[in-house]
């Protein structure tokens, strides 16, 4: 699904000025940096953290959507949701592999997720409370993800950029599918319309928070922009998202829950109300409604599956021993 | 209406098992299985949809696939007992999958000769899927059976728990018998040797033995289920039933 504006990146680096200058020239020339290339330590760390967060977001993101697989209200929707959640898992696998090219193992990243050291997108710390939320998550959350990820297809780090090309194609499909769920509800019974509006009310602001803090408050944005890991600022992407999404809501006859939302002819975009940044930081720091439950569920899956992974390793070892004995 | 009824039995088997596997989504022992299990669930649910739709058409009362899946209660569901058994652990889940696929694979091969065009169509696609399910679940049964002490114990427990539901797979309800006589569906009893062969091959490598079953459990085809199915359906049907007539 998506990584939020990077949380707590650390772009510090202490190589020689000549090395850094030569690296910057490669980046400026739009050359792709590949895993075996020399790179500043800060660049590597930032990418490990960003790709790791992105991968974790995909994996944790399976939980709120998985919450509705067993209750999907038609077989067609059930199949589509299963396929979507499977896609998210696939993105996670893809991204873990991209991060592994930088010398960090999937096990290590998983442990960091479970210990709370590694973050994931805060959006998944909100609960899915109705079927409409499955539509809204596709429409808004995947929609916001696409805004962020399209520029990542041109990210300076080759494996990440290439992974994003495929991921974006699938996310775009998810976004349209989510919108179609909401459209069906918005054209449905009164109860379905209410369900859709209630869902938009709950997800609108958290979706805007997905772009991260204001540019002025985003500590490591500058370095990431310079290294062309990031191509647009948080606020630029947020504005693009709002401008694209508000007409979609209007088309459905749904009301965006922001009384200050107003078209600004001069800037050619919408003005909007202020995000509740206290809530944003509260959820980032672990106090959202679902933070504990999400990590608990991931840890339980990992811990309960330990005997399976151990058995697979033991069996592979037995086979290897037998093969060697036979040779 | 025998063929309608027999198709429902088959569709229910696939939907209920697909639903059970989908319960794993996001909670699998490793990411690769979080991808593999929805895949298998999708195969099964996909097959159930075609069968429900076809059953509804044959019945001719305008029932859609969703009406059939979401508006029948547990006494009307006609799936065999094996598919509704709870996931328990990964060993149970993989063995249940192997048992079912080892039956359905030769079933669909035989169904290629069906007099019904839709059944032939399903057969062509589903036999490939079932071959994959046998391979995937079979490999896991082998890994777990011949893995660690713990995994071998769990695998033996799964064999002990699930083998009492195997015989029912080979029973044909009166409706199925009519469909078999009409050449629409294959004879279930004929598939035993093939099932035994598949399981023997896997169990040989997995260091498992098929136990003697003192008393086989039956009743699913008459709507006499275990207590778990009612909960499964209550969950599955909750949204659909809360909004009668709504489109989704």
Summarize the structure.
The complex is a heterodimer of chains A (327) and B (248). With 327 residues, chain A is mostly helical.
Q: How would you explain this protein's 3D organization?
A:
The complex is a heterodimer of chains A (327) and B (248). Chain A has 327 residues and is mainly α. Chain A is 66% helix and 2% strand. In chain A, helix 3 (75-100) runs antiparallel to helix 6 (158-186), helix 5 (131-152) packs antiparallel against helix 6 (158-186) and helix 5 packs antiparallel against helix 9. The longest helix of chain A is centred in the middle third of the chain and has 29 residues, at 158-186. The radius of gyration of chain A is 21 Å and the shape is globular. The N and C termini of chain A lie far apart (47 Å). Chain B has one domain: Ferritin, core subunit, four-helix bundle (Ferritin, Up-down Bundle), CATH 1.20.1260.10. Chain B is 66% helix and 0% strand.
Total number of strands of chain B:
0
Which blocks of ≥5 consecutive residues of chain B have pLDDT under 50?
none
- Please state roughly what percent of the residues of chain A sit in beta strands, choosing from under 5%, 5-15%, 15-25%, 25-35%, 35-45% or over 45%: under 5%
What oligomeric assembly is this protein in? heterodimer
What would the average pLDDT of chain A be, to the nearest integer?
A: 94
Please state the overall shape of chain A, judged from the principal axes of the Cα atoms: globular
Largest sheet properties of chain A: 2 strands, antiparallel
Biggest interface between protein chains, with counts per chain?
A-B, 47 and 49 residues
């Amino acid at each position: 699904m998506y990584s939020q504006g990077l949380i707590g990146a650390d772009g510090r680096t202490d190589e020689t000025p000549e090395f850094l200058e030569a690296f910057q020239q490669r980046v400026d020339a739009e050359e792709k940096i590949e895993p075996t290339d020399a790179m500043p330590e800060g660049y590597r760390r930032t990418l490990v953290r960003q790709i790791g967060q992105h991968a974790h977001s995909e994996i944790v993101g399976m939980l709120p959507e998985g919450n509705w697989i067993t209750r999907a209200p038609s077989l067609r929707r059930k199949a589509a949701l299963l396929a979507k959640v499977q896609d998210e898992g696939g993105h996670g696998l893809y991204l873990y592999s991209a991060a592994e090219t930088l010398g960090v193992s999937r096990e290590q990243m998983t442990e960091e997720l479970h210990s709370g050291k590694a973050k994931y997108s805060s959006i998944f710390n909100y609960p899915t409370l109705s079927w409409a939320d499955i539509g809204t998550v596709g429409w808004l959350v995947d929609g916001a993800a696409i805004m962020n990820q399209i520029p990542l297809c041109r990210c300076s780090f080759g494996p990440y950029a290439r992974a994003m090309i495929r991921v974006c194609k699938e996310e775009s499909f998810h976004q349209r599918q989510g919108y179609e769920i909401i459209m069906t509800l918005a054209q449905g019974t009164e109860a379905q319309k209410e369900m859709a509006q209630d869902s938009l009310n709950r997800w609108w602001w958290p979706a805007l928070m997905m772009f991260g803090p204001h540019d002025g408050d985003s500590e490591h944005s500058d370095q990431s922009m310079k290294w062309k890991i990031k191509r647009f600022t948080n606020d630029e992407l947020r504005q693009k998202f709002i401008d694209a999404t508000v007409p979609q809501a209007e088309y459905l006859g749904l009301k965006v829950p922001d009384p200050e939302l107003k078209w600004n002819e001069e800037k050619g975009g919408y003005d909007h109300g202020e995000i509740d940044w206290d809530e944003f930081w509260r959820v980032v720091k672990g106090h959202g409604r679902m933070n504990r439950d999400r990590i608990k569920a991931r840890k339980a899956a990992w811990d309960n599956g330990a005997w399976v992974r151990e058995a697979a390793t033991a069996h592979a070892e037995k086979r290897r021993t037998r093969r060697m004995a036979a040779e | 209406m025998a063929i309608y009824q027999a198709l429902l039995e088959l569709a229910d088997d696939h939907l209920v098992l697909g639903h059970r596997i989908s319960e794993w989504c996001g909670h699998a022992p490793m990411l690769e299985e979080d991808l593999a299990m929805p895949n298998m669930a999708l195969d099964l649910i996909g097959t159930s949809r075609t069968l429900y739709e076809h059953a509804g058409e044959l019945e001719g009362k305008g029932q859609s696939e969703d009406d059939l899946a979401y508006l029948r209660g547990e006494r009307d569901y006609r799936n065999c007992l094996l598919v509704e058994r709870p996931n328990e652990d990964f060993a149970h889940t993989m063995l249940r999958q192997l048992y079912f696929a080892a039956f359905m694979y030769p079933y669909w091969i035989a169904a290629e000769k069906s007099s019904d065009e839709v059944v032939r169509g399903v057969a062509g696609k589903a036999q490939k899927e079932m071959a994959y399910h046998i391979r995937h679940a079979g490999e896991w049964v082998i890994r777990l059976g011949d893995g660690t002490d713990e995994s071998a114990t769990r695998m033996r427990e799964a064999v002990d728990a699930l083998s009492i539901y195997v015989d029912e797979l080979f029973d044909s309800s009166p409706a199925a018998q009519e469909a078999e006589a009409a050449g629409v569906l294959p004879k279930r009893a004929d598939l035993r040797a093939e099932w035994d062969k598949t399981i023997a091959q896997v169990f040989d490598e997995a260091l498992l033995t098929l136990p003697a079953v003192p008393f086989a459990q039956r009743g699913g085809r008459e709507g006499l289920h275990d207590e778990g199915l009612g909960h499964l359906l209550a969950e599955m049907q909750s949204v659909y039933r809360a909004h009668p007539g709504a489109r989704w």
